[in-house]
Every structure is written in structure tokens, then in C-alpha cells.
Amino acid sequence: MDTITRQESILTALSVEDFGQVRALLGDMHPSEIADLVESLPPKDRETLWDLIEPALEGDVLSEVQDAVRAGLLEQMQPQEVAEVTKDLETDDAADILQDLPEDVINSVLASMNAQNRERLASILSYPEDQAGGLMNIDVVSIRADVSLDVVSRYLRKLGELPEQTDNLMVVDRENRYLGVLPLADILTKKPHTSVGENMIREAGITADTPRYEVARIFEQRDWFSAGVVDEEGKLLGRITVDDVVDVIQKEAEQTVRSMAGLGEDDMFAPVLTTAKRRSIWLGINLMTAFLASWVIGRFSDTIEQLVALAVLMPIVASMGGVAGSQTLTIAIRGIALGQISKSNSRILMMKEVAVGVFNGLIWAAVVAVVAGLWFGDSSIGYIIGLAMIINLVIAALAGALIPLTLKRFGVDPAIAGGVILTTVTDVVGFMTFLGLATLFLVN
């Protein structure tokens, strides 16, 4: 049964209060699939479904759902309940859940835990959730470099089990300073009498204050499955695994998409007033920029009255500039997010994008000029719109590269404000250029 069919079956069962059927369907689902289902339900059905989920799965489901939805679910739970559902989770997953709670509730939850879980979580909660320290799991198997592989093998057998997602053992010195990793495969394939130091891979750990997007970039570049997290003295604090990085990548991608639309992190079924309030800010900003573009058009009202064709054609100039600018803006934002754009290559990028704008401007200006000239039987209009389009596409390309770099320099997320500013630039320049040229050359 595919996800959509299962969702429809559960909704049908909920509507007729066939809770036995709902429990049966949930029993075949992975916690991440249940989390997706919870997010897709309206609040009333969501509450009913949550009561039908097996208590043993509640912690795993909470760790998978969107932050805004998780916050709503946690509001319905007592501190003791939260402590109970998080006690068997990976430390980093439990920390993610607690970070969505008010500080006084976090303290109540920690007080409800046993001393071991409380100490494990407190060490992660001391770091912001958007840094490596907030992503790490402190469940780590560490070994010394001066012991033999045979000793390590016997130690692991005595240990009995390994933390999930363990592909390497963390190698440290006597002061717990991180030295590198020993792949588990080496314990089986290398000579037992050789030392860990002879077989280990030496590498620097990720410092606890490293931003999460930088952690994701490092993992992608080095094809890591896990990495040690260290403090400012190089001492091992914990580890980050690839599943944590996948979550970071997914959240960053979702945040970028939402930001480009002027949206924050929001529950799909959040209250109307809450959602409207969050969106109204950017609608207001967009309205102000629209008035600016309208003001520009108004300055050429006499010209438009004499040549109605201008009113028909001017949206083409602004629209083409907007698309060209958005293409460059997307490339620039991606480059900034991946750390690929710096002062050394930003000028080269702008020159390249301007060249692309000139090239595309010449091609499409010629096409539009011919169409407009034939359409209105006036070659002069074709020349004017063609020239205006070349200018606007070049300006759009330059703005698409320059705007995100400028916003980044002032500490503003380019994905949030870049699109609004770019639209204003391409509209104003497009209308000003087209109508200004028409006023100079076509109107007596």
C-alpha cells in the first residue's frame, strides 16, 4: 500500500471511528512515515491519531516530525510523559525534542529523568541546536592509539553492543584529545598484533561551535559517515553521523524554499490568524515595491496614452528581466550556501553573469523586436522594446549576483529578501527603460 492510499485509509477509518483499523495500519508503518502522516492531518484528526500511536513509538515519531508540529504535540504532554518517551532515544534526537520546549518545562523534564539521561542530555543542550555541539551524539566508543587490534576486539566483545550508526571507533590520547578514527573493518582485516595507531586514519575533529550548514558541507566533501566533535582544546565530546547530516540538509533545503517565498517554519494546518500574520509581513513589503513600480509607470502616463502598444508590451520587458535575474540569484544563493563564493571570485561571477545577460538579451531582443514590429506594424516599437530588453536583462543579471552578496555582507539571509529586492529592480528598470526610450524616440 502506497503512502497516499494508506493516508486515505487512515482518514476514512478515523472518520468512522474505526480505531482498531487505524492501529492495524499504523503497525505496518515506520516512525518517519507516521510522522509524515501526522503532519498531513488537520489538528482534530492529528490529536486523535496521536492517542492511537503506540507509546513505544511516540519518541521516534516526535524526533521525525516538523518542529512546528512537534511543538504542538509537546504542548499536550506532561513533563513526565516527555521524559518517558525520550528515555530510549539517541541523545541527539532527545535533545532536538527538548529544545522545542520552554526552558522551565525543559528543567521539569530533566528533573523527571534519571541521573544518567539527565547528564547526557544536559551536555548537548548546552550548545545551540544549529551548531555541531547541538547535533552530536555523546554515545561514543573511544579507544587509545597504543593498544593492539586484538585488545580492541576483545574489548568490543566484552562491551556487547555498539551505538547505532557506528562505522568507526574514535581514537583518543590519555587526555581524551581526538586523534582520528579506526574503521571497524580494520579490526577484522588487519593483523591482530598491530596497534591502533598503525592502522588509524588521522583527522581533525569538527569543533562544537561549527555551524550546521558547514558540518553538512564537510560531510559532503569528505564522504564521511561519521565524525568526531571536539571542544576548543581538541578533546572528544561526541560524534555526528550521516543521518544527522541528512536531516540538516533536508531542513536547510526546506528553509531555503520557504524563505524565498517569505515564509517561516509553519505547520500546514496552523491556525488561520497565525499563518496570516506570518505571511502578511512579506505581502506588505511586496505591496510597497509594487507601488514603486506603479509610480514609475505613472510618470509616463502621457506616453502610454499616446501609444497603447506600450501598455501591452511593457510587462514582457519586466517579466523577462525577472526570470533572468532569478536564474542568477538562485546560482548566487546556492554558491553562498555551499561556501563557494568569496571576495576572490565574486567579481568573476558577476562578469560572467553580465555576459550571459548580454548574450541572452541579444537573442531574445531580436525575437521580441520582430514580433512586436509585425504585431503593431511599427518597426520603431520593435527597436525600442529590443533595446529595453537588452538593458533590463543585463541589469537583472548584475542584480541577481550583486544582491545576495550585499545582503550576506550585512548579515541578511539572501533567500529571504533577495527575491523581493530583485523583483523591484527588474520591474522598475524594465518599465523605466522601455517607457523612457519610447518617450525619447516615439512621442512627439
Describe the protein.
With 444 residues, the chain is α/β, with parallel strands linked by helices. It folds into 3 domains: 3-127, MgtE N-terminal domain-like (MgtE N-terminal fold, Alpha Horseshoe), CATH 1.25.60; 142-260, CBS-domain (Roll); 272-441, Tetracycline Repressor, domain 2 (Orthogonal Bundle). 70% of the residues lie in helices and 7% in strands. The strands form 2 sheets. Strands 1-2-3-4 form a 4-stranded mixed β-sheet. It has a 3-stranded mixed β-sheet with strand order 5-6-7. It is globular, with a radius of gyration of 29 Å.
Q: Helix-strand pattern, N to C?
A: HHHHHHHHHHHEHEEHHEEHEEHHHHHHH
Structural class: alpha/beta
Strand arrangement in the largest pleated sheet: 1-2-3-4
Low-confidence stretches: none
